[in-house]
């Protein structure tokens, strides 16, 4: 979890106490937490959120909209006590030769949204409360991101738990993160923060659609010419 662990704990306590003031819940970080690897009686909740990273070696910064936040929950009705274990998967710098995995930095607003969604899920799974159709509160993306996810430097992907790659037992992504039809490589574009200014440096993948159309058109012309030549030759004989 990020260095602001106390912020997560404080916000969680404020939210859970609003709905269950007589029950005791705790939130603790657990770096060994894995998706769908649950102890008996525990339940799971996953979210994909927007966050920023900074390399501790070269100070390079980047943003990602696919930061996996994993929760395992356990509720004891007899003791009126609940536990939540949390893990935030890290990412590493793609430009350093031996980069370290860096923890993400979330805005206060997105921390509140993530934990609000967690409390909704606790009410639904642990207390059988809430509406079945209750939707998640979407994360705030400070900048527009598109393009391929950097799976080679994503901790969740490397461990086989990143849903974008379709590997491992990871759950499916929320609808809001699924790319629209007829789009190519527009899941996430890494945006780097230029060290010399406050502007963003970005890379947009090339679009090969026009090249493909031109090739198809030329192929059709060649086929038509061949047919015409064969037809004229047949008529002369």
Note down, in words, how this protein is organized:
The protein has 237 residues and is α+β, with helices and mostly antiparallel strands. It has one domain. It has helices at 5-19, 108-125, 155-158, 209-236; strands at residues 24-29, 43-54, 61-76, 81-88, 91-92, 101-102, 191-193, 200-202. The strands form two sheets. Strands 1, 2, 3, 4, 7 and 8 form a six-stranded mixed beta sheet that branches. The protein is elongated and about 100 Å long. Residues 165-212 have low confidence and may be disordered.
TL;DR?
The protein has helices at residues 5-19, 108-125, 155-158, 209-236, and strands at residues 24-29, 43-54, 61-76, 81-88, 91-92, 101-102, 191-193, 200-202. With 237 residues, it is α+β, with helices and mostly antiparallel strands. A hairpin with a 6-residue loop joins strand 7 and strand 8 (200-202).
Present the secondary structure layout.
Layout: H1 5-19, E1 24-29, E2 43-54, E3 61-76, E4 81-88, E5 91-92, E6 101-102, H2 108-125, H3 155-158, E7 191-193, E8 200-202, H4 209-236
Helix pairs in contact: 1-2
Membrane topology: Single-pass membrane protein
GO molecular function, one term: olfactory receptor binding
Pfam family, one: Zn_ribbon_3CxxC
